[in-house]
Records
---
Amino acid sequence: MLYEFYQSTNPALSFELFPPKSVAGEQLLYQHVDRLMAYQPSFITCTYGAGGSTQSKTLEIVGEVKRRYAIPVASHLTLVGSTADDLRAYLQQAVDQSVDFIVALRGDPPAGSTHFQTTPGGFRYANELVGLIKTEFPQLGILVAGYPEKHQEAVSIDSDLEALRRKLDAGGEVVLTQLFYDNEDFFRFRDRCEQIGISQPIVPGLLPVTNLDQIKRITSLCGAKLPDEFVNRLGQHNDPDWQFQVGVDQSVQQVEGLLAGGVPGFHFYVLNRSDATIKIMENTNFNSSIVG
Ligand code: FAD
């Protein structure tokens, strides 16, 4: 089912949520998802907190999204702090709750540490988790992460691509990319993937910028670069409305460029909000093919 979303002539849409920390945040989340549903996403995903801190919340959110909107859902899952048996137990719960797909990840090192620590009895790299899912939970579709600007810890672009290929060879069906702001980085990455024989759909991950400080924090954490010209424009006015509009304009251009480049879909990091994503959809050609 997962692969098929990306075979359609209309690019597939997915939205990524995170588990809110409060009841108020959760209520707000569904108000925003209500609005996003007008764009008929193929599926919705929810992140898995650092150190597995949000495990049950992640499953709760995807379960509730599925119940309310009757669409496929994906739980992210990382290796952090888990033995292989812990991962099996989580995957079994996901299956029991009718989760459709897993975004299979290694996870980041804990705050303050630069190296990922393998949990005794656990795995070291995401491809091992992919292999576990493929072998023991074949009913779950598998998405994996790809890095247009190279993963921060990878020693080279080539070794990072080999790591991606291992995840796909182990059973990954679709690549969702890390956020990026220069389409050339994405197209170069896609070309390199093609050159080494990767044929699975590669779906750009987009995080619309709505606030300069927030985005500087996020990009410094994940290593994505912000084009100077864009940062300069955002910084011209310390005004939230201005920054929101500049961010939306940039994303609209990005989406148009990616559509022209023939991407199979878009994965929006919506951060539990809908405003920016809706403005982007309203202002791109993509919109006309979805909402009619
Ligand atoms: P891997 O594919 O295991 O790669 C990790 C590093 O090891 C890379 O540098 C790779 O090149 C290298 N490597 C891989 N295999 C080998 C090998 N055999 N030998 C040597 N080197 C190797 N984090 C969360 O905590 N929760 C989330 O919900 C979450 N969701 C995400 C969603 C998306 C779409 C993306 C792009 C990222 C997400 N992340 C999330 C962040 C992710 O956990 C980090 O980027 C993490 O540092 C790497 O995860 P990975 O699955 O890509 O790891």
---
Amino acid sequence: MVKKVAIITNGGDCPGLNAVIRAIVKTAETHLVECYGYIEGYKGLLENNYIRLESNGTASGLLHRGGTVIGSSNSTNLFNYPIEENGQIVYKDMSYKAVENAKQAGFDCIFTLGGDGTQKSARDFSLRGLNVIGVPKTIDNDVAHSEITFGYNTAVSVATEALDRLHSTAESHHRIMTLEVMGRYAGWIALESAIAGGADVAIIPEIPYDINKIVEKINRRKEEGKKFSIIVVSEGAKPKNGEITIKKTLNEGKGVDNIRLGGIGEKLSRDLEELTGMVSRNTVLGYVQRGGTPTAFDRVLSTKYGSKAMELAIEEKFNVLVTLKNGKLGYVSLEEVIGNNKEIGARSRRNTKYKYKKSNNG
Ligand code: F6P
């Protein structure tokens, strides 16, 4: 019987994390289950650092708050963790220590709020004997088997507002405006904000772009009297026969994301200036799209995900990810989720299909 549970928020933060925490806590309380939160993601599990979460205390006033009140860590892989030994950094498997900590603390279930990388660790912890339940978090919307991840709707709304604002300045100055948005190797934020913001071109990682086609489109618009163009480009996009643009490569060990994407917007903007003779300016939306208050949609979605996660714990359905499919809450084994990031699929003649692609990121 589940009596004591803990929450971990891991990976890049995202709007709705606090709303999920609140929902788990409230649902736990209705079942007389004690709820705790590990501090700074998986790091807290290793350091045995956790706090009590109560709806009339630490978990109060969370619904509209951005970020995560229990903190997150983005590059912690306890299965290959950097330790200093004799002045040198060596990588060690610290997962056994983390499992021991959680067992000693008496947690019957740990909720892992995160994307693909977080859920991979969760699966590995389940193989070491912990009961885990994942909740699909990321602004990138790329977690497999979930129609929509929490945080995504907020990111699309922020990007759409940015596009509205870029429209008026582009029109006043007869410029090309490129907007670089996040999303890693999936183009969901770019595609949906481009549709909502009425952009002229959307460039997504799933379809390498042909610069000549973009130039043709801009020139056609000019001939029709539209002397400005708006282009949304996803950070993971690349030209045909070209490479993705990497801002920085880190060295934080195996099993964590060492690649910082970024720079494709600026590159595209310069290329378009040269090829069209028009003035082009680039905007990088950056962390604005994942900070701050969640939209009403994300508050509702996060609340549904959080309460479903706790209900699954009560039913003792462990080692699964909470999902939303055809509008219905459900769950799927973590095994089926990891390494299968959801990307935008090729358009067939009759319908648009989503494909699930193997990837180690997210
Ligand atoms: O996965 C969420 C995300 O915001 C991506 O869209 C982006 O590429 C990445 O995280 C940035 O990560 P970091 O916080 O490490 O800079």
